Amino acid sequence: MRQLLVTGGAGFIGSNFVRHVLAHTDNVVTVLDSFTYAASEDALTDLDPARVTVVRGDIADAATVDPLVRRHDAVVHFAAETHNDNSLASPAPFVQTNVIGTFTLLEAVRRHDVRFHHISTDEVFGDLELEDPARFTESTPYNPSSPYSSTKAGSDLLVRAWVRSFGVRATISNCSNNYGPWQHVEKFIPRQITNLLSGSRARLYGDGRHVRDWIHADDHSSGVLAVLDRGTIGETYLIGADNERSNRDVLAMILRLMGRDADDYDHVTDRAGHDRRYAIDATRLREELGWRPRFGDFEAGLADTIAWYRAHEGFWRPVKEATEAAYAAKGQ
Ligand code: NAD
Ligand code: DAU
């Protein structure tokens, strides 16, 4: 039985990870989360209080972080500012949380010799050409495009330096685009689903040919546990489920699954510096750690996700109007 400190555990992937840990291990969890706009109290309320404790606090606050880190066996670090569009409008919180917050955690795990797993993104590698057969691997050079991805790249490099210079026991995983329950409506898939549920139209940036490599959040969680349990200290593992899709194709699937017309969407202003394509080669995770995704059928996973948003209007309705107003102000 391990005591895990999960930062960002009230967010989309962090809360899915906490549920995964409760279902598949005997670990107990402390969530450290500052409850930004992206967090949800509901995402944690039905969990066993004997196994989950929630602490409200900022990962960049050493006085909060240090005593918490000291009494845990491992830190799994999800907390971040995560939305590219927000990072273009206002980069400062991204530098503060993603860089300074990660630095603060690294100093605490260094002081107390606590195992650290850092959650990162495929976006640190920049983007790929649409017709290029290449995919990202653990040795792809870093080339981030946005304020978000550059701060995640910076945090990855801090982790690598703390391993090499101070002997911190850390691993890193870089995952592709996640979908599933509890994702904020600012993100692509929940935005389209909840627009349609609200009687409005879907919104596609630019020409919509951009490609993302979709993975269910529960498969991301099992990949993270595999690295935490069996990964080699100092190493990086890419997590992806071989599921590249253009935004146009994902939207067409959502429209079909929700019984709407194929043209029930608007093209809106493109994202500045919009990355064209991401694609993960997860051979290392599969072969070295024996990991396999469970959600092989994307259309079935998407149908479940649509059903989840239909059934959980209380999660998204209170923030929907303000999220759409912010998009509308940017012509998106
Ligand atoms: P999210 O935006 O849904 O949740 C982030 C959580 O972090 C929120 O609960 C928020 O309150 C918390 N947080 C933010 N700043 C904090 C601070 N200073 N102190 C404490 N808590 C703070 O994010 P997500 O989509 O679940 O992403 C989680 C992690 O996974 C991030 O590190 C992200 O870079 C990474 N990631 C995300 C994806 C994806 O598709 N969403 C893919 C790969 C990697
Ligand atoms: O690749 C991993 C990354 O995936 C994570 O690191 C990020 O935290 C996460 O937000 C996600 O980044 P993206 O920018 O790829 O995700 P987003 O959901 O914002 O957009 C997905 C694609 O859909 C992207 O090409 C932009 C496009 N898009 C997005 C929105 C919100 C639209 O066409 N319309 C929209 O309304």
Automatic annotation (TrEMBL):
Give the cofactors, semicolon-separated: NAD(+)
By sequence similarity, the record places it as follows: Belongs to the NAD(P)-dependent epimerase/dehydratase family. dTDP-glucose dehydratase subfamily.
Organism phylogeny: Bacteria, Bacillati, Actinomycetota, Actinomycetes, Micrococcales
Which NCBIfam families does this one have?
A: dTDP_gluc_dehyt (TIGR01181)
Q: Which residues form the NAD(P)-binding domain?
A: 5-302
Q: What is this protein called?
A: dTDP-glucose 4,6-dehydratase
- Keywords annotated in UniProt: Lyase, NAD
Q: State the EC number(s).
A: 4.2.1.46
